[in-house]
Amino acid sequence: MASLLFVQTIAKQYLPPEFYDVFSKWMRRVIGIVSSYISVVIEENDGMKVSEVYEAVQTYLSVRSSSAAKRLKVKKPQNNKEFTFSMDGNEQIADEYEGIKLWWVFHSSERKQQIMFRRNSSEEKRSYELTFHKKQKQKIFDHYLPHIMAEAKALEIRSRYRKIYINQSNSKDYEYRNRAWTPVVFDHPATFDTLALEPEVKQDIVEDLQRFSRRETYYRQVGRAWKRGYLLYGPPGTGKSSMIAAMANFLDYDIYDMELTQVKNNTELRKLLIATTNKSIIVIEDIDCSLDLSDRKKKKSSPSSTDEEKDKKPSEPDENENEESKVTLSGVLNFTDGLWSCCGSERLFVFTTNHIDRLDPALLRSGRMDKHILLSFCTFGAFKILARNYLSIADHELFPEIQDLMEAAQMTPADVTEYLMKKADHPTSALRDLIQALREAKERIATAALKGIAEEIASATYDQV
After folding, report:
1. Sequence-ordered list of residues with C-beta below 8 angstroms from that of 73, at least 6 positions apart, any chain
2. Cβ burial 211-247 (10 Å sphere, 16+ → b, else e)
3. What distance in Å separates the CA atoms of residue 408 and residue 434, rounded to the nearest whole number?
4. What's the CA gap between 256 and 182, in Å, rounded?
5. What's the rounded Cα separation, in Å, for the pair 286 and 355?
6. Which of 16, 56, 96, 306 gets the most CB atoms within 10 Å of its CB?
7. Strands 371-374 and 227-233
8. pLDDT tens-digit profile of 351-370?
9. How far apart are the C-alpha atoms of 255 and 219, rounded to whole Å?
10. Taking a C-beta distance cutoff of 8 angstroms, is the pair 29, 72 a contact?
């Protein structure tokens, strides 16, 4: 066996890759005939998802590769503090388990074909091959492979980095370019302590998340998928993205940030859903801008509509609602609450919008968006949190004046933050600038209101004439 592996190693060094692939297949057949060893192949893809066993083997071997392999790939993911190592294509390393000798080989080959997320593109077919003596077969299956799964899980916990994924189909990253999602290390500092919200609102959200995270048995008992939907709505600059980051940090969940305009059709939308992991937050920001998901009852029928189109039930969406993407309202509804939404557990669906009135009621109902959270203009309670965060003060003589102006001024937390940051080293000056801005905002609102009243009076007078 050692001689055959030596020949295979020499061939790898001197044969071109395309010839070595053929030679390697031939060698495996020879080894299977004359050897007392058997091989187990663990492929990367397991149906529509990445194989859990493949990822465990990859994690397990990443530690051993740095010392045992002769040819390595090294990278440092964005925001990651450490280098990661992996075996190069057709590289081999040895392992030992309770006195048993084993060999791992990483296979990688490229082929042209039409695949789900890119057309006429190169696909990397990757797999790990494990070779061991036939008499150890039962021990390898019953003990060694479970040992790898446990070791990989422990390694992942020790080096755990929260990640945010994007559905980017043209990733240049070797490891992820054939996968539905591309990850980046997520290191957002937002927490519920730093969010500019009234304390009772934050407490309600935290309790809701805690209740959800510990109710696995309850959801199964009542016959529901272990998921929950949140709709964050309100004007721009009110902290919707920061809220999502705080939720992820609080629950220690990964985030899947879905760009709907990059999804070609409902089928691809389902495949993206299946490719997400448990303990994750699936986010669609500004959903009213991504696709036409407006209230179907408010849509006016086109003059050229046929009788058949007019006879459609209100619940039937038009499959051609969006010219650039064929994802429909029906597809999004099934994505959040259809049969495919139960393919996974402990997941949150979080949608954001600046205009809740533009969304179809079917999307807003319980079971899809279970909890609606209004993130509106800055209140005095939210301002006090911002003052603590940015100015390091809990009280000030100018606070009463700010409290009087805050409600009428209708200023977003993002705008308030900008004034506090400009003079963070001089709290009194920062607060005075904020007061001036609040006064101006209040005057603009009052002027606009008077202008609106005047226009109404003028219109009524014109109608009477």
Report:
1. 85, 86, 87, 88, 174
2. ebbebeeebeeeeebbbbbbbbbbeebbbbebbbbbb
3. 14
4. 9
5. 9
6. 56
7. parallel
8. 999 999 989 899 899 989 99
9. 22
10. no
